[in-house]
Amino acid sequence: MKIDYRGDADHHDGTSDATPGGYEAERRPGELAFALFLLAASLYLLWEAYGIAGFEALSSAGAVPMATTAAMAVSALFVVLRTARLPKVSTESLTRDILPFKVILFGGLLVCFGLLLVPLGFLPTAALFLVLAIKYLSGRGWGFTLAVSLGSLLLIWVVFRIVFTVLMPAGIVPEAELLQFIRNIGTEWGAQ
Amino acid sequence: MDTLLALLTVFTQPQLFLLVGLGTFLGVYIGAIPGLSVTMAVSILISFTFSWDVYPAISLMVGIYMGGVYGGSRTAILLNIPGAPSAIATAMDGYPMAQRGEAGEAIGVTTVMSFFGGLVGIAVLALAAPFVAEFALTFQPRDYMLLAVLGILLVGSLSAGSLLKGIFAGALGIAIGAVGRDPLTFAERFTFDFQIMEGGISFIAVMIGMFGISEALLQLHHVGADAMRQKIDRIIPSWSTVRKYLPLSLQTSSIGVIIGALPGTGGDIAALMAYDHAKRVTKKPTRPFGTGAMEGLVAPETANNAAVGGAFVPMMTLGIPGDAVTAIMIGALFIHGLNPGPMLMVDQPQMFWFIVGALLTANVFILICGLTGIKLFTKIVEMPRAVLIPLIMLLSVVGAYAVNNSVTDVYWMLGFGVFGYFMRHYGYPLGPVILGVILSRLLDDNWRRAIISEREDLGAFFAGILTSPLSLTLLLVCIVILLSQTPLFTLLKSRVSKETGDQL
């Protein structure tokens, strides 16, 4: 591996925020569509900002939102014009370099995580997510997958739930009763 | 003599000494976990320490504050997820260093420079508190507004890519910061009639999504690549390395102290400004900025720790919080029957000197906590990506949820994560978005205060700027920064350097 390896040999995926991705003189697949989306979104937000207080006063609640969305719209317009003029990168495709199946799959998994977090609870949802994700990415056996997934989840749960007392959604798991049970064991142990 | 005794209280009482140490240790790890903010930790601590004596309570809080500001740099370096907003700039060069296998060296230098920055901040707090506070007090709303504009203009120089994309990202950040009910008129802004948007968008959710989730999604492209082994044999930097960066760290410490002393600003803005300063003054960085330049680590890390001492200046001398944590600490002092402000210095100078002593002790503990346990910490990045990526995603979800115990924040975080992923692919910098969200309130509030005080007269507003030396200086700096980002300036600069080269 090269010493300057930073996640991508060409550094075009924005590995560090100080060196954003893309190419200086070429257009990546989907780049123009993204720029057009940003322009449309900026114009819509400008319209929304105008709706806050119109041109009522310089000190109105809508003054700064209007100024910023106008700046967004103008810069997005120039980006669109500039991007449209650039030639396409010949060696890249949208499905391979920007949106491969893995990214779409994980996007979907994360959305499912968010949707199931409250009804199912943190522990089962996180366990399901970790098992599926690690099994798919590592391609290792079920023993490794279950040990790593459940072990890490237990560690994270102990740190967040017990040490930092962050209340995650309990869902179908009787978390409070479980904790009380553990505390009772601790108390009995101490009493002996 | 009494002053010296108060300063040494922490050292003479083992219980207080240990509490500062425990607080610093906890702070380092709380600061390193994205979503668990120092502000949150200190506010939870108030309820724990309510019945304690004031000295132990303050000892623990000071330790957590100091440790937390430093701790944010660890995950910024190792995972590209800033544990705290003040570590955003650290990630820009720290993470590329970790990807080269230099995490140990990066953390070592970060620790020593954080210690140095902390020392400068404490020295200023102890020696020049009244003067710095007096200077901050002279700032008018228009000056704060110009300061926010200055911060936003830094987007161009903070991002190596297109200026237009940087401006777009900064403006987007301000728009995100404006979401919710306007605090002045209660008007709805960008809520689209959704009730859940009335409270605004959590800055932490935006930050974790943009930096954490987008990073994890990007890493999916390279899941088969070998994990980079980290060199952890050189944790403690050599004296020559430290000496080399001392002049820069002294400059950026000064930036940190001044920015930290300005109410409403904090270590995050100080770190970003220091990073920008380093980019401007460093002629020959160890590597280009953004690819693992040591100067890009030294500058923000000294500044954000120096800002801690700075933040205490207005808090102790004027009763005005320098940032969110000092705002909570003012509340804690009130709970314990103390009145932070000018009279505290007169009535209870021992409390002021005790806090200075506690900060000094916490700073020493940063060295101890920071330079130990790194081996265990760096093992995180040597984990196979197949395990690390899902864990980053899980931690991001937990972190976003922990801010307000709200699933809505998780959805925001996921949305901004996906959006950030595309932004990174297409060359839009993420830092300015975060900077915009941070500065949004400062800009909005002070613009409105300034223009209301001029009775909506734009001419009078500009006349006010031109007649005030401070405002004029800030305006001129803004103009210079803006011009320096234009192609015309670059062309002129290259011509001048070429002519100079020819003459030589």
UniProtKB/TrEMBL annotation, chain A:
Region (Disordered): 1-22
Keywords linked to the UniProt accession: Membrane, Transmembrane, Transmembrane helix
Segments forming a coiled coil: none
Pfam families referenced in this protein's UniProt entry, alphabetically: TctB (PF07331)
Keyword Transmembrane annotated: yes
Biased composition (Basic and acidic residues): 1-15
Protein's name in the database: Tripartite tricarboxylate transporter TctB family protein
Source organism: Salipiger abyssi
TrEMBL record, chain B:
Record field: transmembrane: 16-42, 54-72, 106-132, 144-176, 196-218, 320-339, 351-374, 386-404, 410-439, 460-483
Keywords: Membrane, Transmembrane, Transmembrane helix
Keyword hit for Nucleotide-binding: no
Domain DUF112, residue spans: 18-435
Cross-referenced Pfam families: TctA
Xref: InterPro entries: DUF112_TM
Protein name from the UniProt record: Putative tricarboxylic transport membrane protein
Native organism: Salipiger abyssi
